[in-house]
Structure formats: structure tokens, C-alpha cells
Please model this.
Amino acid sequence: MSFDTVKQYFEDLGAGDHVLSFSHSSATVELAAEAVGCEPARIAKTMSFLLGEEPILIVTAGDVRIDNQKFKAFFHQKAKMIPWDLVEEYTGHAPGGVCPFMIKENVRVYLDESLKRFDIVYPAAGNASSAVRLTILELERYSRCQDWIDVCKAAV
Model:
């Protein structure tokens, strides 16, 4: 998977103009916020975890962290991130560009409640120098998420 695949996905949806490409890295929340020109909290970071051998993605606001107790309460197991060198193999996107669009078929997507305080958010678009400008409803629809969950610590 790649930026071009994600861009085509949004073109096919009639939302190609939502996809942003940058000449510099947007691989971290801070770099993405600088590239987009928004506060870091509006960067919708996509985190990859393994539930047993099953990969899942959790999209959170840029200013929150996973709460291990909440994660375990919801998924009934300890949070285990996918090792950096295996992220692309499991999800279809390389680290820095992981997003909830055009992912491998067996990957479930969850959206964290921390995103609901914003009207517009910016997840990556398949590489480490891209983003997609989306409303919360568009993120929900285009990511084909399983559900909204609450697995993060409160923003400070």
C-alpha cells in the first residue's frame, strides 16, 4: 500500500482534494501538525497493535496516550504494539505513514473517543509526508471502523 493507493481511494470517493502531500516529513505528531498548520491534538495518529496474532489499528487524537488499563479492560489483554519492522507487513503501510485507509483486509480499525472533541482531524495518507483533512464523520465512514472506543488517558 502507499500514498498513491490512498490518494486513489479518496479520488474514487470524490474526496481527492482532502489528501495533502508535503515536501518534508509528517511522520510524527509534531511534524504533521507543523506541515498541516494545526495544533498537534488534531493529528489523528494511527497506532498498530497485535491482539494475539491479529493486527488492529487504533486512531487517537495527537495529544493522548494509550491507557493500558482501559486497553486491557476493552480487549481483555495487555496492549502489545506491532514491532516497528513488522508494521508494514501486518498493516500494509510503513511506520510514519500508517493510516486507517487501504489497509490489509484482516486489520480491524477502532477510533478513540479522544477524537470526538474536534470537527476536523488529520490522519496520515499512506506515507510519512502526507495527511488527509477529514471531518469526524468522514473519518468514521472512510476508515470503515469497527467502533468508537475509549482506551486513552485524558488529554492534558
In short: The chain has five helices and eight strands. The helical segments are 3-12, 29-36, 68-75, 87-91, 136-143. The chain has one domain: 3-149. The longest strand covers residues 43-51.
